[in-house]
Amino acid sequence: MERIVYKYLDYLKIPLSHNFFVELLLSHPEYPSLLSISDVLERLGINHKIVRVEKKNITDLVFPYLLQLDKKGAELNLIKNQKELTSAVETESVYCQFIILKVESTGVIADKENEKWRSKETFLKIQSAIFISAAIALIFSANINFFSWIHVLLLITTMGGILVGYLLIAKDLGINYEVVEAFCKAGKNSNCDEILKSEDAKLFGRIRFSDAAVSFFVFQLIVVGLLIPLLNTNGAASFLWVLSIFSTLSIPIIGYSIYYQFIRASSWCRLCIIVDMILAFQVGIFSYLYYEGIIQMGDGNLQIFLVSIMLFTVISSFLLLIKANIMKDEESIQAGIKAKRIKNSITVFSHLLFQEKRVEISSFDDKELFVGDPNAPLKIIVASDLYCKPCKIQHEKAKQLVAAYPEKACIIIRLQSRQDDNRAARYIFQYWLNNIYGEADESSQINKLLHDWYNGMDIEKFMNHYQLDNSVGNKVNENFVVKHTEWFRQEQIYATPTFFINGYKLPANYNIADMMALIPSVVELFQNKEKSCLQNLASQ
């Protein structure tokens, strides 16, 4: 499901990190469902609609969109044109209904974490491109003065073997490429996954066919692409002799591969067949070299042979270690996603939330420092210290939350004043009341005011930047300092930042960033709670 949805968003050229989107979707407690998709899109600030449409009206819709038959277990389909629509719906009854997910293209993602993930993915792509380019340049420079058609054929087949071997390992690791999947599933009795995951496809019960193939072809590339062209004639001949021995040993492997797929499994792995064909072709090349006398039995060299064995061992061990670490990391990621799915469950969150202390959230003289819509159903109070670095970090995260859910959440800031120096709190209150309070853009001005304060946390510089009219008294200002200080004392709040969700203290195992995944469900939770209270009052 996540692959199809991301493909749709990518088709719309929405600048979204693939890994970030997949993690958000997989960690949603209702995954896999349209609700999980809708919640994630809302969190990302991507406008969308989900509607039911009868088959007779479906041609009125504008492409592209995601389509799902309105029945349990139905798959999502990306519909980009009339041909794809016809293919998806032609076998369905004229009376059936479809669920349509239509997304509005955007160039801005509300959740700033997306940019961090995209940056990492871009860096990885650049590093991969540099590595591949440097490897090709290295092979080319080593072989620029060493040319023969036999050598070129060995290089081409070796690099082809590495590419196919990589695709085999990618399948082992759960990395799927659409073109490769289509190739593997094409044809009768073709099933790469069944063959690759079979216990009979392992050497010594541990090493998979894909591991052995990549190890062999990487070893062969180093020998053919670097050692042979750079060594003297005798050394090159000895390495060719070693490769001919390896190639001869591959004959029973080719035979067993074909026997297992054709006789025992009655199923084909098309990628494995390509590897078998490459190995068989190389057997033909070395047979020709023996026939022509280019390779002779006397070319064997014990030292070269032992070096080759050690080199192959080092390469195979290194690749197996890398693969094992990747698989271990993937297991950790999947375990983390499952844990997040539980953590993001509104049932779990509400159980913990309603066990926490509840504080008084009435405003002070109907005045509050706020960011967002003051009429939003969810009021998140932040108990902050103006000289607290964690408060600075959490203030930025709270801003992202309001940006993602502008109609659902509002941040209310309450400031702790220091006994030894409360000038900062007094000055911020005074500036707010004199210059910002009651303005149409009060929320954005308060946001900027606090952002500028936390960027420097220097009262003298702040006062120079935000200058007050000294003719205005500070009686109201002192009143607010006292009320905020009293609220901290009365509610026994000693640590900052501390968050309260509609008056309930945020549970210890959650932080404000976790609320990004919970806001829609929490809003619904409190709305249902309020309805239940009103119904109980009406029945009394």
Automatic annotation (TrEMBL):
One MF annotation (Gene Ontology) recorded for this entry: quinone binding
Subcellular location: Membrane
InterPro entries in alphabetical order: Thioredoxin-like_fold (IPR012336), Thioredoxin-like_sf (IPR036249), VKOR (IPR012932), VKOR_sf (IPR038354)
Membrane-topology descriptor: Multi-pass membrane protein
Keywords on record: Disulfide bond, Membrane, Oxidoreductase, Quinone, Redox-active center, Transmembrane, Transmembrane helix
Spans traversing the lipid bilayer: 122-140, 146-169, 212-232, 238-259, 271-291, 303-322
Domain (Thioredoxin-like fold): residue spans on this chain: 367-519
SUPFAM superfamilies: Thioredoxin-like
GO cellular component: membrane
Statement: the UniProt record of this protein carries the keyword Disulfide bond: yes
One family name in Pfam for this protein: Thioredoxin_4
Residue ranges annotated for the Vitamin K epoxide reductase domain, each copy included: 153-281
Family in the record: Belongs to the VKOR family.
UniProt-recorded name of the protein: Thioredoxin
Organism: Fodinibius roseus
